[in-house]
Amino acid sequence: MVALVCVGCSTSSLHGHSSTGTTAKLTPVTLGAPVTTTSTTTTTVPPTTTTLPKTVAGSSGGLSVTLTVDPVRGLAGQSVRFILQAKETHAPGALHYAITYGDGGSGSLVTPSVCKAGPGKPASQVWNVPHTYAKAGTYTASVTVGVNCSPDKATASVTLTAVAS
Fold first, then answer.
1. Local structure of residue 14 (DSSP, 8 states)
2. CA-closest candidate to residue 101, choices 11, 154, 162
3. Taking the CA atoms of the chain, what radius of gyration do you get in angstroms?
4. CA separation for the pair 119, 122 (Å, rounded)
5. Residue 158: beta bridge partners?
6. Whole-number Å distance between alpha carbons of 144 and 155
7. What is the pTM (predicted TM-score) of this model?
8. How do residues 122-148 score in pLDDT, each as one tens digit?
9. Is 36 helix (H, G, I), strand (E, B) or coil?
């Protein structure tokens, strides 16, 4: 009589669960006969460390901001790309931003406070801002955009994770 024996199985894998980094295989054996086992190389697959970009938005008056973070979960020490998109539909003037990364770091683009009289065409701007999180952790990044000649300010915030490498 032949039976199938699971070589390398744990109790949890016998109940339909598998453990990360384990290799198991069914081996036919003849009941009552000596069993020879061989070693199996186990490869540990690291947990997923990157995820798709995440986009959040905020607005106030005629001003809107969209913040995209790529990746929203990545390795500590890996560069994270922040894409800031601002649009003002009511006031002419230069757009500017201030960003905090949640780890004590920050950045900004300051513009001169020069205003034009009268209506102007809508302003829009896109900035690509890289940042690296040195330590593993969960961080909240926040960007505020503004436009000269207007009291409007729009803010968007996102939570992201840096995992140990």
1. H
2. 162
3. 27
4. 9
5. 141
6. 4
7. 0.67
8. 788 999 999 999 999 999 999 999 987
9. coil
pLDDT at 12: 39
Q: Which residue has the higher pLDDT, 47 or 115?
A: 115
CA distances in angstroms from 99 to 36, 53, 146, listed in the order given: 63, 18, 12
What tokens does 14 get? 């016998």
105, 60, 91, 128: CA torsion to nearest 10: 30
Q: Which two tokens stand for residue 163?
A: 């995992």
Q: How far apart are CA 126 and CA 85, in angstroms?
A: 4
- Three-state DSSP class for residue 144: strand
Residue partners of 16: CB distance under 8 A and separation at least 6: none
Instruction: Name, in order, each residue with C-beta under 8 angstroms of 34's C-beta and a sequence gap of 6 or more.
Output: none
pLDDT tens digit sequence for 85-101: 999 887 767 889 999 99
pLDDT for the residue numbered 32: 57
Helices (H) and strands (E) in the chain, counts: 1, 11
